[in-house]
């Protein structure tokens, strides 16, 4: 088996940054992130640089790397403190030149969230201003939150850690979870038509009575928050590709973090069935944990004037439409390395807004300790309500020649085609199946509805042309995207989503 990550390949990727690249390259580079995320989940105390070094030393073999890391002589990640810290609001740090308190400036937040530093946010105004999220504390009446928590703690006894195969390694997620939908019909569809990272989900449940009861409140609150966000942050107009339709939470993933050591690695949630600019409502119950977010940096320029070796490069270089500039709030190159920790107490609803999944990654790191909750003890329950859009039903989206529905992703690693969406095959992630070279640019109307798709049929010739020009001829290893399906580099801890 070819080594999956090698220094040579990484160099090659780096050299192709400005031209002649394709989403396949993007996927390839992200495969390294997937491995790092897996390793990070398995070895949360080892920093990323050290993980990468050991991974490279073991030719990209995650299992061998993990074995080597079992003898922990590597540097610890700084700042693994207790989940609950003391700062109450960023505004208390914001002092105007006259010395009086003022609302926090973006400049101040940028300074605090610089590379290597973590900005801790508690206050809803700070969170709204400095992250793509908004938060509502004490969201449910206390007794309803209590009922839901008790019900889900009981349910969580049957939750499982998602496991997935990475070459010959079986990796399991660092927390447990289950997936719920609104009706028996949806459940059947999920089991028989939806595919997550190349496989069908076997454990799909219908919403429990409390999940169902709370769903209406979440729907109402999230739609209100969306409108507020549009009014206050997007200049009164929804984002391009954001759906104008009401957000309807017809599915929910429930996560259980059983103690401070349980976590979820860096990832973006999978857009395949949610569509572009998805919104997610995330309800936290039980112990407080830190929800970390970090911006995906706009890739730095590495000009390579000689790299016009492929047809795709020539086409793409002339294709101004797809040299998309970063959004204004993402303009600073090199920005994005600082982390922001949003503290999620019991009974808080976090809304991940439309700018989140494409532009940011999120994680719940292991904590050194947690403050016990009177009902949940050391456990945290998290419910992410999601809107599975009809237009993104697997019957309506591209299916590759090998028969597996394609996944929807976005280019984030290359300036070329940055922000452009594409469909690609995940069959190569299924043990025993041949990797498939399918990829296809995704096109949407302004409201994020897919256009120009011909349903479940493949368009192999178009894809082959693109692939032949810009993909496989560079030895891209598509087996790389074996990680979590909801996110491009979530390290496999959500294999089923
Ligand atoms: O536990 C959380 O707050 C986040 C969970 C998450 O990111 C997910 O379910 O995708
Ligand atoms: Fe997530």
UniProtKB/TrEMBL annotation:
A GO molecular-function descriptor: dioxygenase activity
Cited Gene3D superfamilies: Alpha-ketoglutarate-dependent dioxygenase AlkB-like (2.60.120.590)
Pfam families assigned: 2OG-FeII_Oxy_2, Zn_ribbon_GRF
CDD domains documented for this protein: CUE (cd14279)
Keywords, comma-separated and alphabetical: Metal-binding, Zinc, Zinc-finger
Composition skew (Basic residues), residue ranges: 1-12
Domain CUE: 31-74
GRF-type domain segment(s): 400-445
Biased composition (Basic and acidic residues): 474-497
Residue ranges of the region described as Disordered: 1-29, 317-339, 450-497
Record GO biological process: DNA alkylation repair
Record flagged with keyword Zinc-finger: yes
Domain Fe2OG dioxygenase: 248-389
PANTHER family assigned to the protein according to its UniProt record, in alphabetical order: ALPHA-KETOGLUTARATE-DEPENDENT DIOXYGENASE ALKB HOMOLOG 3
Name used for this protein in its record: Fe2OG dioxygenase domain-containing protein
Originating organism: Thermothielavioides terrestris (strain ATCC 38088 / NRRL 8126)
């Amino acid at each position: 088996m070819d080594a999956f990550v090698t220094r040579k390949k990484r160099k090659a990727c780096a050299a192709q940054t400005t031209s002649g690249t394709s989403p396949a390259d993007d996927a390839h580079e992200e495969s390294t992130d997937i491995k790092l995320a897996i390793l990070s989940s398995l070895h949360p105390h080892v920093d990323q640089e050290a993980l990468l070094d050991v991974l490279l030393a073991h030719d990209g073999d995650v299992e061998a790397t993990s074995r080597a890391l079992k003898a922990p002589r590597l540097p610890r990640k700084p700042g693994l403190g207790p989940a609950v810290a003391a700062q109450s609001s960023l505004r208390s740090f914001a002092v105007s030149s006259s010395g009086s308190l003022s609302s926090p400036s973006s400049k101040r937040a940028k300074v605090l969230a610089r590379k290597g530093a973590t900005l801790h946010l508690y206050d809803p105004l700070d969170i709204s201003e400095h992250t793509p999220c908004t938060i509502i504390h004490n969201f449910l009446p206390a007794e309803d939150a209590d009922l839901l928590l008790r019900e889900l703690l009981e349910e969580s006894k049957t939750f499982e850690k998602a496991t997935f195969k990475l070459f010959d390694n079986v990796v399991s997620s660092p927390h447990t979870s289950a997936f719920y939908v609104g009706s028996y019909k949806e459940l059947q569809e999920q089991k028989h038509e939806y595919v997550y990272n190349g496989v069908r989900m076997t454990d799909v449940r219908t919403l429990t009575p409390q999940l169902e009861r709370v769903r209406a409140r979440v729907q109402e609150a999230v739609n209100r928050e969306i409108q507020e966000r549009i009014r206050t942050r997007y200049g009164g107009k929804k984002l391009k590709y954001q759906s104008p339709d009401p957000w309807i939470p017809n599915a929910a993933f429930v996560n259980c973090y059983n103690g401070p050591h349980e976590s979820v690695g860096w990832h973006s949630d999978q857009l395949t069935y949610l569509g572009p600019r998805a919104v997610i409502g995330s309800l936290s119950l039980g112990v407080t944990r830190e929800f970390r977010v970090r911006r995906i940096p706009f890739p730095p320029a590495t000009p390579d004037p000689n790299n016009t070796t492929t047809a795709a490069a020539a086409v793409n270089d002339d294709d101004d439409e797809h040299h998309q500039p970063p959004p204004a709030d993402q303009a600073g190159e090199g920005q994005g390395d600082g982390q922001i920790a949003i503290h999620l107490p019991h009974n808080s609803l976090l809304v991940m807004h439309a700018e989140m999944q494409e532009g940011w990654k999120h994680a719940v790191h292991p904590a050194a300790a947690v403050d016990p909750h009177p009902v949940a003890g050391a456990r945290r329950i998290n419910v992410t309500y999601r809107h599975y859009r009809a237009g993104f039903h697997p019957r309506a989206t591209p299916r590759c020649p090998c028969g597996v529905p394609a996944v929807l992703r976005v280019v984030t690693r290359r300036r070329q085609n940055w922000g452009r969406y594409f469909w690609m095959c995940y069959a190569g992630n299924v043990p025993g199946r041949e990797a498939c070279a399918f990829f296809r640019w995704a096109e949407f109307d302004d409201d994020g509805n897919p256009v120009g798709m011909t349903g479940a049929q493949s368009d192999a010739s178009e894809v082959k042309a693109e692939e032949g020009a810009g993909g496989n001829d560079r030895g891209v290893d598509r087996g790389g995207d074996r990680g979590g399906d909801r996110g491009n580099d979530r390290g496999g801890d959500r294999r089923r989503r």
